[in-house]
Design a protein that fits this description.
Layout lengths: L20 H11 L4 E6 L4 H12 L4 E6 L21 H6 L9 E3 L4 E2 L2 H13 L5 E8 L10 E8 L5 E13 L2 E6 L2 E4 L5 E9 L2 H16 L10 H10 L4 E8 L3 E2 L5 H14 L16
Helix pairs in contact: 1-4
């Protein structure tokens, strides 16, 4: 919703030619061999999103638009006229189940994940043979903080095989001197700055939809009347891992990340993207030449 940023940051221009952050992920995904992009949007900005992206990418990759509404995938018995808050990231993914039938990645539209992350997702999803073998790109906590305020992050634990064993949301994280601290009320926790965290950069097999739907219906039953409850991807993933129904590999593609949480972040993002163009990581004009990976 961009409440702290103060606007629709998903369609704001940051690149040298007014590119959105999401355009870089789409560009990287095309190069990595992805064949379709699905925009999950609020109905009130659907036309804005189409105007912003379609002319640039509809000749490059198949495009679908899905509305995350308070009715989509919500049985009539659970629809609450008093609710205005979106149901969260796992519900957003579930809204796309009718247009996705293949392995897929999930990202935020306002985060820059880097070429390595998108390439790693593409490689994993194209090679994995197990229907319950998913993945996420891990980022070192020290690389995903903001200089302009606190952030919330999904802090990961993992086993010797590099698979996720659990994730816990830590709130109000910031650097304090030479330490990284999370402050949640009276709970003050120091976190190792090299700990991998989730930036909502996932890779899933199609079976994820079925498992998510089961937990979605249970969530609705348990939260009847709670108009602020949210259904998150990490909640589903943690449950699948705990029940032994899925394995989630932590990929090492998280080399570069930046995003816009606060208005003050914008200048840094503009300069970071400008530098990537100057260093030929991206062409001068993003959509003049798109090379698709084999």
């Amino acid at each position: 919703m961009g409440s702290r940023y103060g606007g629709n940051k998903q369609i704001d221009g940051f690149g040298p030619n007014n590119e959105t952050i999401l355009e870089y992920a789409i560009y990287d995904a095309i190069q990595a061999g992805f064949g379709k992009v699905v925009f999950i949007v609020r109905e009130e900005i659907l036309d804005l999103v189409k105007d912003r992206f379609l002319d640039k990418i509809d000749q490059q990759i198949q495009v679908e638009f899905v509305i995350q509404s308070l009715q989509n995938q919500v049985p009539t018995a659970f629809q609450n006229p008093d609710r205005t808050k979106p149901y969260g990231t796992a519900h957003a993914v579930l809204c796309a189940k009718d247009v996705i039938h293949e392995p897929f990645a999930v990202i935020n539209a306002d985060d820059f994940y880097g070429k390595e992350a998108i390439a790693q997702l593409g490689t994993f999803l194209s090679q994995s043979q197990r229907s319950n073998q998913h993945c996420m790109v891990g980022y070192a906590l020290k690389n995903v903080l903001s200089d302009h305020g606190t952030v919330n992050r999904g802090v990961c634990s993992y086993n010797e095989d590099g698979e996720l064993t659990g994730m816990k949301e830590r709130e109000k994280i910031s650097r304090e001197g030479d330490k990284v601290i999370s402050r949640m009320g009276a709970d003050v926790l120091e976190i190792d700055e090299n700990t991998p965290v989730s930036m909502n950069c996932w890779g899933f097999q199609p079976d994820f939809f079925e498992e998510t739907e089961k937990r979605w219906l249970k969530f609705l039953e348990e939260n009847t009347g709670n108009i602020k409850s949210e259904f998150y991807i990490p909640t589903v993933v943690n449950d699948l891992i705990a029940q032994g129904k899925a394995a989630v590999k932590i990929l090492e593609g998280g080399k570069t990340w930046f995003g816009v949480t606060y208005p003050e972040d914008k200048e840094f993002v503009i300069e970071a993207l400008k530098s990537l163009h100057q260093n030929n990581i991206y062409p001068q004009h993003l959509w003049e030449e798109v090379k698709v990976s084999n």
